[in-house]
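Teaching assistant here, posting this on the class forum so everyone can see the example we discussed in section. The complex has two components, and the goal was to see what a joint structure prediction looks like when all of them are supplied at once.
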Amino acid sequence: MNLSPTRASRNGCAFHGALQTLLAIPGTVPIIHSSAGCGFQHYLGTLEQGSGGCGGAALPSTNVLERQIIFGGGSRLREQIKNAVKVVEGELYAVLTGCAAEMVGDDVPALVRETRDQGGAIVGVHSPGFRGTAQLGYQACLASLLKESATSAAGEKTPGTVNLLGVLPGRDPFWEGNLTELRRLLASVGLKANPLFGWDASPGALRELHRAEASLVLSPWGLPAAEYLRDQAGVPVVDLGYLPVGARETGVMLSRLGEALGLDPAVITAVLAREQRREAHYLEKIADAYFDRGFQRSFSVVGESGLVCGVVRFLAGTLGLIPASVVITDHPPEEVRPRLEEILRRDGPCPEAIVYAEDQGEIGTHLVETGAELVLGSALEAEAAAALKAPLVQVSSPVADRAILAGCSAGIDGGLRLVEELSRALF
Amino acid sequence: MNPLPIAETSRLAVAGYLGEAASLLREYRAGVVPQRIRTFSQTAPDDLVAALQLLALVPDAAIVIHGPAGCGSALRYLAPGHTAWYVSNVGELDTVMGGDDKLKEAILLADRQRPATVFVVATPSVSVNNDDIAGALEELRPEVAARLVPVYATGFRSKVAATGWDLAWQALFADYRPSLGAAGGGEVLIPALAPREALTGVVELLDSLELKTVVVPAAALPERAPLCTVGLDPDLGDLPGLILAERLGSPQVRPPYPAGIAGTGSWLAAVGEAAGLSERARALHEARAAELDDLVRERPLAGRRVALALPPAQAFAVATLVRELGGELALITVTHLDLLHVEALEGVVAEQPELVLHVADGQHFELASLLNKSKPDLFVSTLGHPVVAARLGIPGFSVRPEQLLGYRGVRLFARLAGLALSNPAFSSYLAQNCPLPYREAWYRRSQDWHIKLEVA
């Protein structure tokens, strides 16, 4: 990935993406092999997300110094791994390499192998920041975890289990709530999501990924892992490509899964009817205010690939708002862009402009040009929203106006929460 | 590469120690302070983070971080709302071929907003690669309106984050030549990591003495040479004071840190003396200290053992404040120690000769074990540490250094301590439900197990 210089970068680096991914698996202890500040930068950048087990300022880190840069940091890493296991409790230890250690050329795989040969549960994640964005870090981390867990994963398929791939811990501010909501929806049609990330997850779920009946892909960033599982373990891929928001999109997701897994269509229909009734019950409550407060207005959405598609489809397709523009910030690969655009334009009002940009200045200029009356984006869009005199609803990373604990932006509950957020902005 | 020495060299800074404070003091008095390293460590701020913290305050300036995007993540916390920062987005190929072109592109992007200054901050990856930043800036100068100033942070040269403040000051003062002399109305220059409005605790005192103040770097460097430089935290204020004394002959005042009643009084006395206002300063101290008599008589921390985890200047001043409020010190953890704090530490040790001193920036595993053993009643620290104590069931609070300044800081400290002690429900909840991740075996080990003398 060759990125251009950027103002107020919102995507972080591959190292931070890998770190966030590991921290979302309770029982996993990251061991950073890099200079002292790499982990600390991550801590300061994600303070509102909490420290978790041994995250935050407690992240084990070799804190390499000049002598390790000159003479190599292999022995320092060996010492750190040995002592991390003795000091910090964990089910799985994961060595992440930062830029400095990677450039020096320390043989991390050999050291990881050495520990594993001694019986240690450890994995190496090649994740220097210069590899690219946090999204690539998520992919690199998942790839390492999948590869390492493949050998212990042989066995029968676990009926009805589905892998949820492409919801990026930390990068999606609502990741944990979204996974919970998706699990709820899957459970409603008799499916079980693999709990790899979140409060009740554990490294043990890694093996289960290989035994799932399907992988549901919810953003372009989940596709390589799904394809790996398809090729290595025969797990079929259901590539939705975006996070569904609202009953209509939830229906698309469940129907696609039902087709792939041969579920009884009557069960899907019944569940969807119930969820539709539930959504309608609550949306009816806002109907008076919708007309009174002028909900119907033009809007721009700024955010990651998986997020923007679902939000636009819900706001335009269900709530009747007018999409002025979409800014996709996470540098999706060229080959997936036509598909994202097709999803955004499918059977509904089309956004006039679809822009790929990360730079805060460029995005701000674009937003002001659209003249949108409502902006859904990150805290970085505050300046542009103020220039437009338009309310800003923070839905994408970084969110700076609140802590997000269990809130979601996907599924039925995510749609309803989004309407609540809109009302807060428009009332 | 930058010739500026790291804190370990320039002021014998150490970032690791656990033992009797008196013993470390003896090393400083002898002028031989061996470096310590850790065989297990946790993440910590580095010179890059510290440099960004300072540079983000500079008005009318942009920051170009020459490295991958993650090297700017800290700015989200350090300077929320600050968006005039750019990353060159160094990629894998650039680490091989050099990232000079991207750096130039980033600078041109920053220059479009017409800042007066663009600070170009190096990062670990470009430092390992030895990118020619100076050369790139030289090439760009003819086509860029902004002043281009390099800041050679590396992330690995120093164990002490404060080294980054030195780097940033050096950059900020690089071309500083005030057009007017101090005669006829120079201001008192205060170096601080906060804007003037956040330093009310000391600015109001200088206002009372009718001394005009300028707080840098949040305010522009004055056009008139400063009357004098008055430090708050010596790690932050010493270098600018030295630079201005050497370059402009502005006197440098190095008073004790102005927190606590006695500490603020000493600071005020030193400033008063430098400004020829000793009598007024003494009267002001007496008046303001008298306003706190009720609090001192009340002794709100009586019978309480307090643990502190703060930067050294604040820690040693707050140690005295704890005693002023009737409390007892259980433990002091400082981010680092260096020659600039020896005198303050001597004062603390004179009061409590057996005091145990822990030198660690972060390193929660050591802190957790120390707190678990010491079991203080209250824990006071900066960002990130209170949760360690809380997860052990110890109530505490977090303070920003500027909050504790001056006489008003005394009341705030007492209030925050009172709140934390009066209802420790959340700490109890965390202790019961969110235990720390360290093994039982670690808590049984000597807490300095992983601190070793560095072999040269």
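For the discussion questions: The mean pLDDT of chain B is 95. The two ends of chain B are 22 Å apart (CA to CA). Think about how each of these relates to the inputs above.
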